[in-house]
Amino acid sequence: MNDISLRHDWAIEEIEALLDLPFNDLMFRAQSVHRSHFDPNKVQVSTLLSIKTGACSEDCGYCSQSAKYNTDLEKEKLLPVEEVIKAAEAAKDKGATRFCMGAAWRNPTDKNLQRVIEMIQAVHDLGMQTCVTLGMLTGDQAKSLKDAGLDYYNHNLDTSPEFYGNVVTTRTFKDRLDTLKSVREQGINVCSGGILGMGESRRDRASMLRELVNLPKHPESVPINMLVQVEGTPLYGADEIDSLEFVRTIAVARILMPLSYVRLSAGRTEMNDETQALCFMAGANSMFYGDRLLTTDNPDADADIKLFRRLGLKFEESVELQATEAQCENRKKAKDFSETASA
Length: 343
Ligand code: SAM
Ligand code: DTB
Ligand code: SF4
Prior knowledge:
Mean pLDDT: 91
Shape: globular
Distance between the termini: 46 Å
Radius of gyration: 20 Å
Low-confidence stretches: 319-343
Bound molecules: S-adenosylmethionine, 6-(5-methyl-2-OXO-imidazolidin-4-yl)-hexanoic acid, iron/sulfur cluster
Oligomer: single chain
Largest sheet: 10 strands, parallel
Number of strands: 10
Order of helices and strands: HHEHEHEHEHEEHEHEHEHEH
């Protein structure tokens, strides 16, 4: 793998041309890119936990957690660290390698951030990769997260800059880019993607992908969510996206960002197995695993295991876990060796 072929100068017309390809040609290109950088039968799995739920000051039109909409959501204050550790242990037992903690905040206060840092350290100590999504961050806050050992920060662009005003008004598209910049400057891995099925056009999808690919460095993780329609939110009742158009967008994300993990994210409960299989064929190699997303349902872990068996897919082991196991093995060998040597 090398960086030489990675481009950051895509024009929207070039991306639209990819989205317009005959389906078979697009899938072939996406598969070829995927296979030259990844094992096509391995999928990285992350489990989500909402660590602070609802009562959010923002007006993101898709979100169950905004205080502005009446969505029947049970609010919850920032969880105690012990509760988060229990959930992370359960996720690890089920095979998740990354634990992703989400908070319904516009931005964290420094006091709240302190507790999140304790959570990050505790989850890291379980041997899992850590990810948090806490809203906008200052440079100093990003630095404290880096110092705490955070692996990934999730902050989505959500949609194209052109469509953005139809979805969110309480923070700007530029605010999002600024947060991504602070995260990147601290050397934290970036997880950033968006949502499809909010009434955007194909050009908007191309434009959102252009924003992601033309960042100074491609995000390491690119979650592609299908809108989960929540009753009470402004986007409830939006025109659903055609499933093949969703697959096309995944394929183009794979072609544009060959070394990134493209995550088939929210919306799997509403997809059939065949659509999900096409997403994996198109180059998605990551997903959320576990019965809950943040506030809405995800397929049961058992259903995902059955699907993986039918498709011959395997969970990717975390690089960290492999390293820990290799270290244990080496330590064991060293111990055995010194014991035989001194006998
Ligand atoms: N409050 C923080 C923020 O907005 O940055 C973090 C949590 S927020 C729930 C994380 C992301 O989840 C959003 O940016 C959006 O892309 C995605 N999301 C939220 N609600 C969704 C829905 N109903 N369907 C699909 N994706 C959704
Ligand atoms: C992302 O792109 N999708 C996740 C995660 N990042 C934080 C969140 C999906 C939320 C779906 C709606 C809900 O469960 O509230
Ligand atoms: Fe709040 Fe995040 Fe939901 Fe927007 S997406 S309303 S910031 S929780």
